[in-house]
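Dear H.,

Thanks for agreeing to be a second pair of eyes. The structure we're designing against is below in token form, covering all 263 positions.
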């Protein structure tokens, strides 16, 4: 017999079963296109990027663009994919908490023998699976694009690059639960998380551009996200982001337990 938590996760995944395709196909198509065109633009890119200031290249993580991994990171993995899946994770949680409250579904769910804490954890776990599915689909399409164009994208490098996005996105999911403890309006929850992710990126970027302010990067989750497609996954940073996400879930669940569920 399935546990209540497993049932909640399964229910959430069934409710959002189209989401992995709706998000994974566009992101995967973009990544595949970036990878596929790299062989034809490699020479021109190398010449152009060589003229960029070193600080600017480091700030935007574009390196010399002398490999398809560097190009994929600069075009997709440095900003677009993390922001997209981070927002997706928040949207998934909001759909299962604030969205359910707005539609009246949350009261029905809580009429079953489940706690609010279990509902929050279930929403988070379902979001984690959904984000993983989107990243996996994006990875597969990127590798297919490389195979078709002969771009030479390394499977191990690409796997590390996309896998490193997962814990960063889960921080967004955890924060969405915290915000749900204060507001059960989907627009508020997703808006706060989207603003947080953009702010974190800006803080990290400022720290890269100005060496005198480099210390502020430690306050940004993007500092710990890094550049895994080239440098590999840093286990302490990866696990640290997962731990932060878990702490946010616990805090958010405690807040949701104490609040009135009326909008």
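And this is the sequence the design step returned. I haven't edited it by hand at all.
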């Amino acid at each position: 017999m399935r546990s209540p938590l497993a049932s909640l996760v399964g229910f959430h995944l069934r409710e959002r079963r189209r989401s992995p395709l709706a998000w994974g196909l566009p992101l995967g198509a973009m990544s595949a296109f970036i990878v596929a065109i790299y062989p034809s633009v490699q020479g021109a890119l190398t010449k152009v990027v060589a003229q960029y200031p070193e600080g600017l290249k480091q700030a935007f993580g574009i390196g010399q663009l002398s490999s398809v991994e560097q190009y994929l990171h600069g075009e997709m993995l440095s900003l677009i994919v993390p922001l997209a899946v981070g927002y997706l994770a928040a949207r998934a949680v909001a759909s299962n908490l604030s969205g359910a409250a707005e539609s009246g579904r949350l009261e029905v769910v809580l009429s079953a023998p489940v706690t609010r804490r279990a509902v929050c954890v279930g929403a988070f776990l379902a979001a984690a699976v959904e984000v993983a599915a989107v990243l996996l689909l994006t990875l597969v399409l990127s590798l297919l694009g490389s195979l078709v164009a002969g771009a030479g994208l390394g499977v191990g490098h690409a796997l590390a690059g996309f896998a490193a996005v997962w814990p960063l996105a889960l921080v967004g999911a955890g924060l969405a639960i915290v915000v749900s403890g204060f507001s059960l309006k989907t627009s508020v929850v997703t808006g706060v998380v989207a603003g947080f992710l953009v702010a974190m990126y800006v803080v990290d970027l400022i720290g890269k551009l100005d060496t005198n302010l480099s210390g502020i990067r430690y306050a940004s989750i993007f500092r710990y996200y890094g550049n895994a497609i080239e440098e590999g996954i840093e286990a302490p940073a990866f696990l640290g982001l997962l731990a932060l996400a878990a702490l946010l879930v616990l805090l958010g669940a405690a807040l949701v337990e104490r609040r009135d569920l009326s909008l």
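Two observations from my side: The mean pLDDT is 89. Residues 4-258 form one domain.

Warmly,
E.
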